[in-house]
């Protein structure tokens, strides 16, 4: 009967309008929800006999409601009080993770399911993760804590326990009076002066510390000409043998600088030009180029010579020297450190045992390193070895020297090489240490080495300085418009990680889940994940959140229409019921 058909159609209309009511209710309820994407309702007609070959008087129609997503609709960017909030301008979505509730060693575990959202209102939780207001964890790429290099593995962004990463050294600056001028410029006589700097700490690309020292030597013929060489002051051989020449004017300013030797040498003489020398160090497999800045040609600051009666900067490190007899080396009176200090080191200036060697193959340095304090002993213990400072090659056994804490003098010397667990006493102590340099056996007398009983040493660390920033006080986290998550320090900012964004072939085909989030479906296509701007994801507005795309005016109007349509369908049901009752009464 047609009455039954009408009743069925009206019921389907009620169900369809109920769906419309639900969608409108969701939109209105989430009008203030960050990142919420409003939906609309589409209606579609079903005709039961649409395949019939002839027209029928009993066609049973019905209607169905379909919820249509509009994930691609752009919400208004609104200012947020949350400094870490970000709003996407474009079609991208934040990649987020959901916690399972389980933990391993106090570390939260996450679902393998990937989620996507436009809710960029994130906060740092008590574990250092960036979490949005719906409880989803923001994903991205973390930077290596040592190198700052951005990783390629997608993971949850964590900004807990951020340590300052020392910046790579690019420039060393010398402000020192390396010597004095001759008494007479018309009849100069050489005084064979030398000057050595205190080692300066430099940092490589991984933030690892190293030491670099400078050794200045006056020319034996022309006292206005000095040679300068850089060396690895840790004795590791990271800096190969090198020599540059600096010529001074009669007023003590720099006249010229010649870097290198032979055909590859370069000379700078132009007045006012930067007087600099290149230093090349190799740390691991990485080559690091450092510029030594001496001031300017003709300048009166930076590196200079004092007047004949002036006072030069005191040299800071001693070299070994040839002994009075062949095959012996000596060390002048040297204070290595203090009896109360810890983790102290001292490396002597490179000394070339061969007057004709220009490659550094016959050079030697004594490397002193304070051993960690162990057990109940209070006596300072230092380890000693001889190395080629330009290659790091060992030239001797390893020795252990124990000092008297009361006087600072060496109390005992043992050889560690035969058996480190049972050191062998060295007859003669520091006065009879064996080493081999360039195939020649030597005996070194280092008995003039001692420790100071003072609490500190008056070491000049101001002459040679590095442009590295070694420390910083952590102040917080900020997010930049390219998605970079930066740690803020009082000395600058450093990369911690980078936010990931995803895009889809059909973003409206995603499956909506709780918390303004979505999952992938066959209709949406696979996620194309990358950084901000990649794959057409758009840009970020930091300090903003994306408002809900609900249009209250439109939805309230649609609510009235839906209400009237729902009421009309109920009226059809009531009328159909009355008709059926009339039909039944007719048979009676």
UniProtKB/TrEMBL annotation:
<feature type="domain" description="Flagellar basal-body/hook protein C-terminal">
    <location>
        <begin position="543"/>
        <end position="585"/>
    </location>
</feature>
<keyword id="KW-0282">Flagellum</keyword>
<dbReference type="GO" id="GO:0005829">
    <property type="term" value="C:cytosol"/>
</dbReference>
<protein>
    <recommendedName>
        <fullName>Flagellar hook protein FlgE</fullName>
    </recommendedName>
</protein>
<dbReference type="InterPro" id="IPR020013">
    <property type="entry name" value="Flagellar_FlgE/F/G"/>
</dbReference>
<keyword id="KW-0966">Cell projection</keyword>
<dbReference type="GO" id="GO:0009425">
    <property type="term" value="C:bacterial-type flagellum basal body"/>
</dbReference>
<keyword id="KW-0975">Bacterial flagellum</keyword>
<comment type="similarity">
    <text>Belongs to the flagella basal body rod proteins family.</text>
</comment>
<keyword id="KW-0969">Cilium</keyword>
<dbReference type="InterPro" id="IPR037058">
    <property type="entry name" value="Falgellar_hook_FlgE_sf"/>
</dbReference>
<dbReference type="InterPro" id="IPR010930">
    <property type="entry name" value="Flg_bb/hook_C_dom"/>
</dbReference>
<dbReference type="InterPro" id="IPR053967">
    <property type="entry name" value="LlgE_F_G-like_D1"/>
</dbReference>
<comment type="function">
    <text>A flexible structure which links the flagellar filament to the drive apparatus in the basal body.</text>
</comment>
<dbReference type="Pfam" id="PF22692">
    <property type="entry name" value="LlgE_F_G_D1"/>
</dbReference>
<dbReference type="GO" id="GO:0071978">
    <property type="term" value="P:bacterial-type flagellum-dependent swarming motility"/>
</dbReference>
<dbReference type="Pfam" id="PF06429">
    <property type="entry name" value="Flg_bbr_C"/>
</dbReference>
<dbReference type="GO" id="GO:0009424">
    <property type="term" value="C:bacterial-type flagellum hook"/>
</dbReference>
<dbReference type="InterPro" id="IPR037925">
    <property type="entry name" value="FlgE/F/G-like"/>
</dbReference>
<feature type="domain" description="Flagellar hook protein FlgE/F/G-like D1">
    <location>
        <begin position="88"/>
        <end position="156"/>
    </location>
</feature>
